[in-house]
């Protein structure tokens, strides 16, 4: 259970039990407290106004629909509206990226190119190093850089301010800021992270960038920081045209085949697979850690340790073995004589990148690969075609379908 005496910011225990305990602990604040004060970043020792549940939700140790169900039960659809909308932002970003996978692919290509350029340019490299080491002289920014490295979490508003200062004041490449986040955030997520950085830089919504303002930082940090005139950029011009690739269909998943000797493969994208198996007879279970493929640079130890613990917890509920690397999947399948492997759907991002060659190898060996998508994603992703507004409009219908609640 959650240790309520410790600051919510410590993510020591990556288990479903801990996640559910934290949901219990935050439930009373999912209504008016959250609606009123969610934008305030009161510092790492006071997170009473936000849930700090993202590390657990991102690994699906607790599910989006479970958070929404709890908010509805304790506060009703009106008072829980803001909290529910924020939870649905995660699903929106995932659904959007799922229909434009090349945005992730392009990001990884340009991240490599930008990095190659930075390491050959000594002044730029020194500028980048100062930013990630909290040595820019902009007190709030330096604090958040250090907070990220020390706690592996940042408040949403701090993420927005940080990204804005990185891009518009420090004029560093956004791809490397996004990479710094991915390597250190326990909740690091290909969709939420890449698309939020793009949104701040004006690459997601035409005509919109996010400019960090001194008065807003002072007000929403309770006066912890008061940037001086001239500390922060006062204009934020878009980094480029909003030029989204054409949408591709959400991948059609074939049904699981009956009568085959079947293995379950768990990745950190969904650590509660047992509730989507629908009575499937599973002969063998394995978990595959992938967090160290988030970036070409090193992923923070706290991130890989959280992932390992989350997968260990999933294995404790599903009895299986931990694999070390993608290449081990085929060996596990062969050792156990598996004819089919099922997995919760693998989202666009480093997980799908890492699994692509594994799936090809399995196919070559005649082993059937099947993914199972959650009905929550099935219900929301088709609406994630443009801005969040289209998805927001669907929330009442989703609440009615899933929870029989009328808003
Ligand atoms: C530049 C930038 C990068 C980000 N990178 C990530 C990332 O890598 N991984 C990630 O999970 N989130 C990311 N976010 C979104 C958001 O900041 C975090 O999900 C949120 O701060 C998590 O804290 P919490 O659990 O206390 O949120 P709460 O405010 O308590 O919200 C409850 C839940 O709603 C969801 N949520 C809330 N706000 C958002 C949002 N803006 N986008 C998506 N989901 C949201 C999360 O699942 C969260 O746990 C990023 C935002 C920005 C601006």
Automatic annotation (TrEMBL):
Its cofactor is FAD. PANTHER family: CRYPTOCHROME, CRYPTOCHROME CIRCADIAN CLOCK 5 ISOFORM X1. InterPro entries: Crypto/Photolyase_FAD-like_sf (IPR036134), Cryptochr/Photolyase_FAD-bd (IPR005101), Cryptochrome/DNA_photolyase_1 (IPR002081). It comes from Pseudahrensia aquimaris. This is FAD-binding domain-containing protein. The keyword Ribonucleoprotein does not apply. It holds the Pfam family FAD_binding_7. Keywords: FAD, Flavoprotein. Residues 83-211 form the Cryptochrome/DNA photolyase FAD-binding domain. It comes from the Bacteria. The lineage of its organism: Bacteria, Pseudomonadati, Pseudomonadota, Alphaproteobacteria, Hyphomicrobiales.
């Amino acid at each position: 259970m959650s240790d309520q005496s410790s600051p919510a910011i410590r993510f020591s225990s990556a288990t479903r039990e801990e996640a559910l305990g934290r949901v219990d602990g935050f439930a009373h604040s999912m209504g008016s407290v959250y609606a009123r004060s969610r934008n305030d970043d009161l510092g790492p020792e006071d997170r009473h106004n936000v849930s700090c549940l993202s590390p657990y939700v991102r690994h699906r140790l607790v599910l989006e629909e479970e958070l929404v169900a709890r908010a509805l039960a304790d506060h009703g659809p009106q008072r829980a509206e803001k909290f529910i909308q924020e939870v649905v932002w995660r699903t929106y970003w995932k659904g959007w990226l799922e229909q434009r996978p090349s945005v992730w692919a392009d990001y990884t290509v340009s991240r490599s190119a930008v990095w190659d350029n930075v390491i050959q340019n000594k002044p730029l490299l020194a500028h980048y190093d100062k930013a990630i080491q909290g040595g820019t002289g902009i007190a709030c920014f330096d604090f958040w850089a250090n907070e990220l490295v020390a706690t592996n979490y940042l408040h949403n508003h701090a993420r927005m301010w940080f990204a804005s200062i990185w891009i518009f004041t420090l004029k560093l490449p956004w791809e490397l800021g996004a990479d710094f986040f991915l390597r250190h955030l326990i909740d690091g997520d290909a969709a939420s992270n890449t698309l939020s950085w793009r949104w701040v830089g004006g690459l997601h919504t035409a005509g919109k960038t996010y400019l960090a303002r001194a008065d807003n930082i002072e007000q929403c940090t309770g006066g912890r920081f008061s940037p001086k005139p001239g500390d922060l950029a006062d204009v934020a011009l878009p980094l480029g045209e909003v030029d989204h690739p054409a949408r591709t269909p959400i991948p059609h998943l074939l049904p699981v085949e009956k009568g085959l000797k079947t293995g379950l493969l768990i990745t950190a994208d969904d650590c509660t697979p047992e509730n989507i198996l629908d009575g499937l007879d599973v002969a063998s279970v394995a978990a595959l850690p992938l967090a160290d493929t988030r970036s070409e640079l090193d992923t923070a130890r706290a991130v890989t340790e959280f992932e390992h613990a989350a997968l260990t917890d999933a294995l404790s509920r599903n009895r299986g073995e931990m694999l070390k690397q993608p290449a081990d999947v085929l060996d596990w399948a062969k050792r156990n004589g598996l004819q089919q492997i099922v997995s919760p759907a693998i989202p666009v991002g480093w997980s799908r990148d890492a699994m692509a060659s594994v799936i090809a190898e399995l196919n070559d060996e005649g082993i059937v690969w099947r993914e199972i998508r959650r009905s929550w994603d099935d219900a929301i992703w088709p609406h994630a075609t443009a801005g969040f507004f289209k998805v927001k409009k669907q929330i009442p219908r989703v609440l009615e379908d899933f929870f029989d609640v009328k808003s």
